[in-house]
Amino acid sequence: MIDLLGNDQAVRFLETSLDMLSVRHSLIASNIANVDTPNYKAVDLDFSRELRVAFERRESQEIGIRGARLRYEEVLSPRIVESGGPARFDGNNVNIDSEMGKLAQTSGWYAQATKMMAVKLRMIKAAIRD
Description:
Elements: H1 9-33, E1 43-44, H2 47-64, H3 72-75, E2 81-82, H4 96-129
Antiparallel strand pairs: 1-2
């Protein structure tokens, strides 16, 4: 059987992007959930850097595993960094406004990536039909 999706660079890039955005969404959700937890430090990842590293690593890993698909967490653990501003009196540095902004941004990027993936899959489907 022909692997139409596994050899497509755009599909692999979008897949990696969606995996990264999912990880980032989880981190932001954790920050929001811990807004009142004493001594909690907000965490995030540098999306563009981590996406580039994960995509490069995925490219090299997939060559040696005979086309098996890898999730982002299996390719490379993200470099999670402390984010946020100065800590409050309780040691927590989560800024809810900042986190909500990041959440909206990440959700928007995810929506765009899924739209692009849908377009790509429709193109492949049309090519198969013709």
